[in-house]
Amino acid sequence: MSEQIANNVSESSLPSTQQPSSFADIYHSSIHNRESFWAQQAKRIYWHKQPDKILDDSNLPFAKWFVGGETNLCYNCVDRHLPDRAEQDAFIWLSSEINQELIDTFPAVADAFSDLGNSVEFYTDYTKRRLTYNDLYKEVNYFADVLQRHGVGKGDRVIIYMPMILEAAYAMLACTRIGAIHSVVFGGFAAHNLAIRMDDAEAKMLITVDAGLRGGKIINYKNLINQGVEQANHKPEHVLVVNRGILPFKAQPIDVDYATERRISCDANATVDPVWLESNEPSYLLYTSGTTGTPKGVQRDTGGHAVALTTSIDYVYNGKAGETFWTISDVGWAAGHSYTIYAPLLAGMTSVMYEGLPHRPNPGIWWRIVEANKVNILFTAPTGVRMLKKQDETWMTRYDVSSLKSFFLAGEPLDESTASWLTEHLGVPILDHYWQTESGWPILSHAPKFNHKPHKQGSPGYPMYGYDAHVINEETGEPCAAGEKGLLAIAAPLPPGCLTTVWRNDKRFISSYFNLFDGKQYSTSDYAVVDEGGYFHILGRTDDVINVAGHRIGTQEIEEAISTHPEIIECAVVGIADELKGELPIAFCVLRDHEQVKSTENRFRLEQQIVGAVVKSLGGIARPAAVYFPQALPKTRSGKILRRSIRALAENKPTGDMSTLDNPPAIDAVKQSMKDY
Ligand code: AMP
To answer: N or C: the chain end with fewer CB closer than 10 Å?
Structure first.
């Protein structure tokens, strides 16, 4: 650490704003005195150079926060805590996938830990590692040194395709330390998804592992990366491989072995000075599905992101330095970025990182982890909870979870029965809250710190400070009355921490999010309603995006994968309600020769091929739950497939207005195809 930085550390302190008296005051000030509100919040982080201007809103909807300020995300997450909490755990990593049985089968797994500098504790059914802020500082510096020695520098894009292991956190933090822009790709995505992202981001380096594990099943990450590189037009210079000792693989000429490189950095005691970035320079890209086939690269800035996340730990989650935060989400999703990695570290907390399923080795694993590690704040998507709901209930009460202050849920609708079931069994506040990849932190929530309004089950709460959020009439843009359904919109400027644009595509930023009325309203693409008490309720998407287990998937991406099948002339994919996963995709495919499906054998072959094409292209998460073969699809006169009507038919609900339908017999064809099944 340079002397200058060390001096600055003692000057900067952890979150230190004057605490306002009520949430109503906070909210009011965040909307009506934006600059002074956020100037105050900006004191929560370390600035190498103070901002010249808090907000530049001269070119809305593009908002610039903390203009001219210079900071570094990694420095704020790691270095800044060394004077006060070097020996506090930064991460507690747990894996129920690395158990005794796995180690007996693959002895190299245990060796790989020592190679990677991990001192771990092996138990029969899980593996654990504690990592102090001091350890994290060292590992992140080694990682940053490895990146630099392989030519990665400020502004370069790095794709991270890794499971829930500590090296994924080092990789993200090391990128932000040197000003490289990371883009984490969810491990459940397939080679095609990887290739699209490699091309769009023009990634210089990829970081991966030999293999991941899910419920004991081995996922061949390295092979998927190799295929992705093969399919991509833009080839990376290097693939950095963290070898976990699970799957032997043949190294490619561009592969670099992380353990070997880490050893070099470690022997040299390498440290890498943080690169100070102007607040608006990008920290990362996270691709998300939209209505069109190509995913959008949500671009996050640096200073606004750090300020927003640090503030949210205090005002939304009521978390404190030294407490333990556990977000059960893959690092490939926004929740994993914001609340497994960045926010808890920014706030000096301990973050739990878990590799494993909710019900393995048994359905008590979450609660056992809470008890053993005194978790204070828990956050996950409802799907995991619904999975536990199907298991033996006694697991819910075998562990002491009294350390928990609150349990937040987001990512998909939280149904009443799941919420009540959890409340009954855990006895802690179950708080639904709502946000998006784009926002990076909660748009709607309850704020338990302030006792603002009583918690209302069935609602994700009310707008958080900074979000001028309203439900508006889709046609007129006028605010809806209480009880009236409309579009959930946010008036520009979006607060700090939200996406600043779509990577290298300002036009798409506007056309995807700000194409309403005067161009000054961000569209969430969700319908909502506000009740008499001012609580918001989310009523579902306005577009063709479905939500499978809290993960957003564009139905068009699935349709594109299916359309590669030579025997299919057109198809429509819709999401239908599923008790466990919220929604599941189902596909309606029109064949060149409908006679084909008259033979059961042929039909089975086609189904297998279609499902296979989707899984190959997009990964198991997008697997259609059913494939139907109607003779035609209902369309409007302008040729638009009526997916909402198809969905209604699939769910046995009224199809609504059919007056724009061009081919009425197609409705019967869709119905018949489901009967044939
Ligand atoms: P993602 O960007 O993948 O996190 O997905 C964001 C979308 O998930 C939102 O636009 C909503 O459709 C949905 N969503 C997130 N949180 C909630 C919630 N608490 N209740 C209902 N839907 C939600």
So the answer is: C
As a whole number of angstroms, the distance between CA 411 and CA 499 comes to 17
* SS3 assignment, position 333: coil
Residue 332 buriedness (CB in 10 A; 0-12 / 13-18 / 19+): buried
Q: Is the CB of 340 under 6 A from ligand 1?
A: no
Q: Is 459 in the pocket of ligand 1 (CB under 6 A)?
A: no
For the Cβ of 410 lying below 6 angstroms from any atom of ligand 1, the answer is: yes
Compute the distance between CA of residue 590 and CA of residue 586 in angstroms, rounded to an integer: 13
Residue type, 100: Q
Give dist(CA 551, CA 222) in Å, integer. 23
Secondary structure class of 490 (helix, strand, coil): strand
Mean pLDDT of the chain: 92
Tell me the CA–centroid distance for residue 410 and ligand 1, in Å. Answer: 7
- Give the pLDDT mean for 571-599: 92
Here the tokens at position 54 are 């808090």
Cα separation, 422 vs 384, whole angstroms: 12
First to last CA, the chain: 66
Ligand 1 atom closest to Cα of residue 547: 8
334 CA: nearest ligand 1 atom: 4
Q: Which residues contact 457 (CB under 8 A, 6 or more apart)?
A: 416, 419, 420, 423, 430, 432
Residue 202's pLDDT band (cuts 50, 70, 90): very high
How far is Cα 495 from Cα 640, in angstroms, rounded to an integer? 36
- C-alpha 551 to ligand 1 mean position (Å): 8
Cβ contacts of 605 within 8 Å, gap of 6 or more = none
Confidence band for 443, pLDDT divided at 50, 70 and 90: very high
The alpha carbon of 334 and the centre of ligand 1 are apart by a number of angstroms equal to 11
**Residue in 316, 329, 435, 553 to alter for ligand 1 test, most ligand atoms within 8 A of Cβ:** 435
- pLDDT tens column, 70-112: 999 999 999 999 999 999 999 999 999 999 999 999 999 999 9
pLDDT for residue 638 is more than 70: no
Residue 492 predicted with pLDDT over 60: yes
**Cα 35 to Cα 237: distance, rounded to the nearest angstrom:** 43
- pLDDT band at 23, cuts 50/70/90? very high
pLDDT at 13: 39
Ligand 1 atom closest to Cα of 437? Answer: 2
Flag the least confident range among 94-108, 524-538, 643-657. 643-657
Reported as a single tens digit per residue, the pLDDT across 354-387 is 999 999 999 999 999 999 999 999 999 998 898 8
Q: Please give the distance, rounded to the nearest whole angstrom, from the Cα atom of residue 188 to the centre of ligand 1.
A: 19
CA of 215 to the centre of ligand 1 (A): 26
For atom 7 of ligand 1, which residue has the closest CA? 436
Q: Which residue has the least CA distance to atom 20 on ligand 1?
A: 413
For residue 293, give the 3-state DSSP assignment.
coil
Asked whether the predicted pLDDT for residue 502 surpasses 90, the reply is yes
Fold observed for domain 548-676: GMP Synthetase; Chain A, domain 3 (3.30.300)
- Rounded Cα gap, residues 145 and 129, in angstroms: 23
Nearest CA to ligand 1 atom 21: 413
Extents of the domains making up the chain: 548-676
The Cα-based distances of 2 to 13, 271, 675 in angstroms read 18, 10, 71
Per-residue confidence (pLDDT) for residue 11, from 0 to 100: 33
Answer whether 283 contacts ligand 1 (Cβ < 6 A).
no
- Name the residue with the closest Cα to ligand 1, atom 8: 411
The alpha carbon of 367 and the centre of ligand 1 are apart by a number of angstroms equal to 25
Rounded CA-CA distance 343/12 in Å is 18
Give me ligand 1 centre to Cα 616, in Å. 26
